[in-house]
Amino acid sequence: MQIYLVGGAVRDALMARELGLPAPAQADRDWVVVGATPQAMVAEGYEPVGRDFPVFLHPRTHEEYALARTERKTAPGYHGFAFHAEPDVTLEQDLARRDLTINAMAVAAQDAEHPDSAPLIDPWGGLADLRARTLRHVTEAFAEDPVRILRLARFRARWPGFDAAPETAALMRAMVERGEADHLVAERVWQEVSRGLMEARPGRLLDTLRDCGALPRLLPPAARAQAGRLPTALPGEADGHPLFTGASLAVRWAWLVAPLDAAAQQALGAHWRVPNALQALAQMAQRERADWPAPEALDATEALRRLLRCDALRKPERCRELLRVIEGLALADPDGGDTVRRSIRRLDRALQALLSFDSAAAVRQAQADGATGEQIGERLHTARLQYLLQRGIWND
């Protein structure tokens, strides 16, 4: 039984050494076991967990150890594979089924703590491609799994200096033309897109999907006609603006779909199974941005109306994300967003003030004064408005 560390942990350690790229703080480690049977793994104390092929949990670290395997395409899509995991499968054969050469490198388990200085097992030229910042498929088997198109697109978003090898780009176009991308399920698309949106250059993910023809295939009919509206970069992405670097997934999703009309936004969100909270923020941003007030129009009455419409007092963090979405979109305005930022500052000051207002006390006072039903709500609204007016927060 021989055990090897493979895949991303080896790749990232070498990227840090060769290219000076930061390694993830807590990288997942993938282990491959050569020359073992399931029975031998259980005898060593490993717990079997794999459904499609033999995977085991280490008895102490609980990391996953997979038996070396080969795979054979049996049906369209990324589920259509038959696996062969026997003691005679070699490490090179296991590495051959991986997507990219930079992910097909390994080191022996005894060297796993320092993979950047260990003897490297690299049968497919991954180190040379890493140094050349090239994303190259290992074998033609790449074409059997359409998820690999999404993964390569995400890697281009993660590492802006990396590009697909010409033959790999051609292979992806051929996969799309053969209809392989049509078999991608929504949950897997969203898994890769959501991860790509949080990378350094998410626009490169979309560019990759456009270049190979996959993007329209991944959109529902209501959004397909508007595929050309999807941005080539998110606000502030190109220069690493603080708005972009600190943005949450919800904010980045809202930026991505902002150019689409409401129907296309909703259709795309439903098609990709995007979480409801993200869809709601995007739709709210579209509504608010459409009639965003000038700073001088954002008086106490308008600020309170708008904050209540956005349910900001119950969900202040969502409101702050909304303001971030609108501020980011305004970077493309002729004044670079200065006017919108002035309005946002006013609205944010109003929100901060209202969060310190004792609404419960105002309700109790209204009840003590004999107010009932809708009268209580009216009294609360008036009290909030007066509180804002008294705070003197409207001077820019």
UniProtKB/TrEMBL annotation:
Per UniProt, residues of the tRNA nucleotidyltransferase/poly(A) polymerase RNA and SrmB- binding domain are 161-222
Domain Poly A polymerase head as annotated: residue spans = 3-136
State the source organism's domain of life.
Answer: Bacteria
Q: Which GO terms describe its molecular function?
A: ATP binding; CCA tRNA nucleotidyltransferase activity; metal ion binding; RNA binding
Query: Is Transferase found in the keyword set?
Result: yes
State the family it belongs to: Belongs to the tRNA nucleotidyltransferase/poly(A) polymerase family.
Protein name as it appears in the record: Multifunctional CCA tRNA nucleotidyl transferase/2'3'-cyclic phosphodiesterase/2'nucleotidase/phosphatase
Species: Hydrogenophaga borbori
